[in-house]
UniProtKB/TrEMBL annotation, chains A, B:
<dbReference type="Pfam" id="PF01546">
    <property type="entry name" value="Peptidase_M20"/>
</dbReference>
<dbReference type="InterPro" id="IPR011650">
    <property type="entry name" value="Peptidase_M20_dimer"/>
</dbReference>
<dbReference type="InterPro" id="IPR036264">
    <property type="entry name" value="Bact_exopeptidase_dim_dom"/>
</dbReference>
<feature type="domain" description="Peptidase M20 dimerisation">
    <location>
        <begin position="194"/>
        <end position="354"/>
    </location>
</feature>
<keyword id="KW-0479">Metal-binding</keyword>
<keyword id="KW-0645">Protease</keyword>
<dbReference type="Pfam" id="PF07687">
    <property type="entry name" value="M20_dimer"/>
</dbReference>
<dbReference type="InterPro" id="IPR002933">
    <property type="entry name" value="Peptidase_M20"/>
</dbReference>
<keyword id="KW-0378">Hydrolase</keyword>
<protein>
    <submittedName>
        <fullName>Acetylornithine deacetylase/succinyl-diaminopimelate desuccinylase-like protein</fullName>
    </submittedName>
</protein>
<dbReference type="InterPro" id="IPR051458">
    <property type="entry name" value="Cyt/Met_Dipeptidase"/>
</dbReference>
Length: 471, 471
């Protein structure tokens, strides 16, 4: 086994890339209501791609928001069932003027494909579809049973997926959840991710006088909402990068010294990171390395701020209102809802006189971690070794896939995160791209993984290999 | 004297208002380069309006930026010469969606005319033109000599007017400078303004990583430019509303107790102000009344702030850059350039690690104050009493007309600020308007003022009535 799908993938590479370009050209931005029709189009495209390769019972299933694409192939009797999760929605593209090529006109340059969604996540869910295509085309069968659940709301917090998973939990039942939506450790260094941060956030709206005022005639007499906002925001973090929201760190789980030692053994190059990002130095919570600050420590980041005059030149206005968007990345055992409450209490306590503050909440996701030594994770290690010719490393990620915690809890499955992205591929930013080297090797890894998974001694070993999740 | 121009103004009121609507419909926004042609159009309109009423030697004089309109009438032999200053440029109109009627389609509603520039300053400079028209039409002459200097860059800091005044100082020589670009004390309570605040400001640009980053993958490891910006801005003011820039208050001139007592005697209603602005309470530097905080105390106000994601919903980005615009209002004897230097030193000292900061400076203006008991100011008091039937009060203003200090210094003239605006007329904000009651009474006041000025015993009394200015 192995030679057939390798040959098949080589022979069909050009066609696959053309299909991927088609997929990436659909502007499926879930956050913007004007793109609703594109979302349907991307869902239909995904469903059709599944039907074409022989996946059965493919459906575009409605939710309260954007639809979920579901399909299955369940003919590997006695073999484990894997649930593959991914998403066909993408992030907004602004600031558009910073893109070198249009975000929805995919181009391949220097063995990388550039487009919004190339790495996160259309490119990677497309690889899953093509790996299954290769096996089905060459073998006429699959070594394991598979179910696919591809949603359209990941970039807006998987608004309706919790409910979808709950309602369809019998339908989605599986032995393992496989997700390719994380990054490799570095170029040429594959990684299996066993932990993700959680997420919560809000928009803060500060309202002052009923209209914009002349800053000369009123300046000094009236609270300026932008001053109030920067005062509130500034009070949330000290100069050492520590979050000063009362109780913010109370529920943070102790990170064992052996795990920190494993992080150190990765010899992460902070100097190189700061060079790549073109900053004079990295910055963050004191007492922790950059890896630790992104993997096992929580954060509070302002994602956007706006108020008053933003045009060319100067306008001497005392603005009527000011706004900021902020999100926290959470680690076990922080509770998103509890952190939101703490932030709101902090805002109440730090709102200066003369303005009023309202907040609107964003969707939340729990933090998540899986034991490193679980058989489904070790099987992934073997698949990577085969395809890449090197040992994979076991990492955590600072990102969040809120639905992972839901899947793990509702379906009671272990989770394997086999991502093929690289951290400098500008996901969520202008000029997102994906390295075709990892498109090719990733396809081989995925094909191989299904054989490795089929080889695990029994389904029981998968399901009860360990206490399989912790969210 | 008196009856003739009153009758004339009544008879021609409808035509005057139609002309004013024409004038206000020209979108002469000096700050926006796209409006260059409208600026020329507004200058030509002004010049033609002067020619039509009999003003002589009318010229549209080029500068390095928008042109100055000049005209004169110098046939009142042996009488004082007044220089009338105003501006035909207006502020930008955004946020446009907050206007109830389009800013450049003037409408009269409930005896108020709504349009950008209705109060600041087209409406008021137009009144000067129409007052001269009434006198010339009825008497065939004027009681004093007049020169008019109407510029197009007041709202962007009178960029080229300092040089213009310096170059043309013989041409502009006069006995008194008259400006109608300030506000009355209240509806029905005319005021003569004897002091203005100065102005300086800058845009602060904070640059972090070379591009926007994923706030999950990088959050915690890298300085967030928005956090850095709010930290810098927050450090500039304490919770009591005091500016904490080192040395900010060092040059502030002592305000005598008798002047503060005069302010108190105005019985300014702070409660009413906060109700009008729809804020729970006023806010500002402790130990001073709202009037004092706007008239005789300096301020630092953030006029605008922006960075990161501002769209609908959430985008979990760690922004690459963040920006703020701030301006200070200054009082005697603060120096705009010195304050700018102090702010820059403060920024240098408060810039956190991991970002770089640049600043771009806005134009400056010196603060200014004229003695209350100067004959040209007392003459204005008599004119107001005649036209409004009440005593005018003597006030200072928190606003800035930077060129006033220049005029006073270069031409060595006393300054009379006879404004007809009201402080709730939304100048610099959506729904700017002007009360027609003050259009009518203001025209009478201006006509009367020229007779009062003509009656002062000698030109020497005007020029040497007192040490005439202090900037």
């Amino acid at each position: 086994m192995g030679e057939h799908y390798e040959q098949y993938l080589r022979n069909n590479r050009s066609r696959h890339l053309e299909e991927l370009k088609q997929y990436l050209s659909i502007p499926s931005i879930s956050a913007l209501s004007g793109h609703k029709q594109n979302m349907v189009q991307a869902a239909e495209w995904t469903a059709e791609a599944l039907r074409r390769i022989g996946i059965e019972h493919v459906q575009v299933m409605p939710t309260g928001g954007h639809p979920v694409v579901y399909g299955e192939w369940l003919k590997a009797e006695g073999k484990p069932t894997a649930l593959i999760y991914g998403h066909y929605d993408v992030q907004p593209v602004d600031p558009l003027h910073l893109w070198d090529t249009p975000p929805f006109e995919p181009v391949i340059l220097e063995d990388k494909i550039y487009a919004r969604g190339a790495s996160d996540n259309k490119g990677q869910i497309f690889m899953h579809i093509k790996a299954l295509e290769a096996l089905l085309a060459e073998d006429g069968t699959l070594p394991v049973n598979v179910k696919l659940c591809i949603e359209g709301e990941e970039e807006i917090g998987s608004v309706h997926l919790d409910e979808f998973v709950e309602v369809n939990k019998e339908h989605l039942a599986a032995d393992v959840l496989v997700i390719s939506d994380s990054v490799m450790y570095a170029k040429g260094k594959p990684a299996i991710c066993y932990g993700l941060r959680g997420l919560c956030g809000m928009q803060i709206n500060v309202k002052g006088p009923s209209g914009d005022l002349h800053s000369g005639l009123y300046g000094g007499a009236v609270q300026n909402p932008v001053h109030a906002l920067v005062q509130i925001l500034s009070s949330m973090r000290n100069e050492q990068g520590e979050i000063t929201i009362g109780g913010f760190y109370d529920q943070v789980r102790y990170v064992p010294e052996e795990e920190r030692e494993r992080f150190r053994s990765l010899q992460f190059n902070e100097e190189q990171m700061s060079q790549e990002l073109q900053v004079a130095e990295l910055f963050g919570e004191r007492g922790y390395s950059a890896l630790e600050r992104t993997w096992v420590r929580p954060t509070l980041e302002i994602n956007g701020i706006y108020g008053g005059f933003q045009g060319e030149g100067v306008k001497t206005v005392l603005p009527s209102e000011a706004h900021a968007k902020l999100t926290c990345r959470l680690v076990p055992d922080q509770s998103p809802n509890e952190i939101i409450e703490r932030i709101q209490r902090h805002i109440d306590r730090h709102t200066p006189p003369g303005v009023s503050v309202t907040t609107t909440l964003f969707d939340t996701g729990k933090p998540f971690v899986t034991p490193v030594d679980h058989p489904v994770i070790q099987a992934a290690g073997r698949a990577y070794r085969e395809a890449y010719g090197v040992e994979a490393v076991y990492i955590r990620s600072g990102g969040s896939i809120p639905v992972v915690a839901t899947f793990a809890a509702v379906l009671n499955v272990p989770v394997v995160m086999m991502g093929f992205g690289l951290s400098d591929e500008n996901i969520h930013a202008p000029n997102e791209h994906f390295h075709l080297e990892n498109f090719d090797k990733g396809l081989l890894t995925l094909c191989r993984y299904w054989y490795e998974l089929a080889g695990i001694r029994s389904n029981d070993a998968i399901r009860n290999g360990d206490n399989n999740c912790s969210s």
